[in-house]
Amino acid sequence: EQLLKVNDILPEPIEYLFLQPKDWLFKNNQEQILANKPILDDSYSLIGFDQEKHIVVYKLDK
């Protein structure tokens, strides 16, 4: 995915992802997100969500 390519270029990879249903990354990984599974080749794991604000938080597995 594009984010993994971006992480390769950056001095430090993006550690946290804050995703909302309207986000492209959420839409492309919706099945895994709704099943509370890791996303982006298992690079990011779910650490929490806020149902009221509709935000899902994923953290990079180091």
Written description of the protein model:
The chain is 29% helix and 27% strand. The chain is α+β, with helices and mostly antiparallel strands and 62 residues long. The protein has one domain. Strands 1-3-2 form a 3-stranded antiparallel beta sheet, with no helix packed on it. The longest helix has 8 residues, at 2-9. The model has no long low-confidence stretch (mean pLDDT 95).
Summarize the structure in short:
With 62 residues, the protein is α+β, with helices and mostly antiparallel strands.
* DSSP strand content: 25-35%
Q: Report strand order across the widest sheet.
A: 1-3-2
Q: Summarize the amount of helix as a percent range.
A: 25-40%
Compressed to H and E, one letter per element, the order equals HEHHEE
The count of helical stretches stands at 3
Query: How would you classify the helix and strand content by structural class?
Result: alpha+beta
Number of strands: 3
Task: Tell me about the largest β-sheet.
Answer: 3 strands, antiparallel
Based on CA inertia axes, which overall geometry fits? globular
Radius of gyration: 11 Å
Q: Report, as a whole number of angstroms, the end-to-end distance.
A: 18 Å
- What value does the average pLDDT take? 95
Number of domains: 1
Unreliable stretches covering 5 or more consecutive residues: none
